[in-house]
Design brief:
Layout: H1 2-7, E1 12-15, E2 23-28, E3 37-42, E4 62-63, E5 66-68, H2 72-91, E6 100-105, H3 116-122, H4 124-127, E7 131-134, E8 140-143, E9 146-155, E10 157-158, E11 161-166, E12 170-171, H5 181-194, H6 203-213, H7 219-229, H8 231-237, E13 244-251, E14 258-259, E15 262-271, H9 277-288, E16 293-297, E17 301-302, H10 311-323, E18 328-334, H11 340-347, E19 350-353, H12 362-368, E20 375-377, H13 378-396
Parallel strand pairs: 3-6, 3-7, 7-19, 9-18
Antiparallel strand pairs: 1-2, 2-6, 4-5, 5-20, 8-9, 10-15, 10-17, 11-15, 11-16, 12-14, 13-15
Helix pairs in contact: 2-13, 7-8, 10-13
The structure holds zinc ion.
Amino acid sequence: MRGYLAESGVESELYAKVPERANLVARLPGSGGGPSLLLLSHTDTVVADPSEWQVDPWSGELRDGEVWGRGALDMKGEVAASAVAVASLAREGFRPTGDLIFVAAADEEVGDGYGLPWLCSEHPDAVRADFALNEGGGERVELAGRALYLCSTAEKMSSPFRLRVHGRAGHASMPGIADNALIKAAPLIERLAAYRPERRLEVETDLLVQTLGGRGFGADEALAFARELDPYAAELLEPLLSLTLSPTMITASERRNVIPSVCEVVVDCRLLPGQSQEEVEPLLRETLGDGDHDLEWIEARGGTRSPLQTPLWDAVSGFVAEVDPEGAVVPICVAGFTDSHWLRESFGTVAYGFFPMQAMDPQLAARLIHSADERIRVDDLALGVDCFRHCARAVCG
Ligand SMILES: [Zn+2]
């Protein structure tokens, strides 16, 4: 990629904590004082099992107007589109007033400290930017008879916790003499599953349902409306109305014949942007009730948002108006997690997830990410290039 960029006269640097996990940062320097725009992407992917695929997952095979392979959607496609946008602008002699930066970062999927967080702390001058475009949005969805392009402006906080249930060990042949922590964990897991947290509309979801319904809604009413409108709308909205709890891992005894004295349950918990562990913990403790167990937070990551009335928002909306005059851009909060929060936290960057997708059905795309037969339409790659070129001219041109 460095060679490809150099052919168009774009200089790039490799920043690497270890040589085999390098990050590439390329820059078209601004002529002075204008706002900077960073095109952010990650080059790593999740694993792929070739036996589940119709093609070699590492082939990048071109078939019927689609590029097939692991990372096509998440997110080597966007890496490629960013590189092409920057290189083509450079060839045309584009001279931005603020820096146009392209970052192809390592290590987003696992997050072992080789990628963007490491760049932000060790090489902040390389990645500091006023505005950024990243993964996490851009799909065109048809709802309520309208074409909407989802632009991710916020994300939930990854806030997993460990529930540790205490009992007393004993020989499994004589359960009466012990106090089985695994059995005691079962009703606690059921209580977590039955918990219905209070719903609330955040600024992003409020705007989304207003766009769909043409008026304001309460949070519960909004979900009922979305269900009536389209199951997909409800699927999109539901995790964004409250915190979510998903128990995913459990450990107890390591021997079949030993009754466990401790059972640990790891719960994947996602908080709304702006919600804190301090606010949520009493609610969780109340849900679990009294008993010999404790709750320990594992981490608190993300949960950031960027404002909506910005030059980058105008740039994204302007692009959509050009390519799809009937379409409208709506903000959305990401239920999962992207690298955008590192930029927001480190530099106050206005970071959005927007890589437009018109040709592929967004529900199909969602099922292909991290799964078999991942692929992207070449038309959508070209659309992404056009979008980045448009935003670069609009924001730092
Ligand atoms: Zn990704």
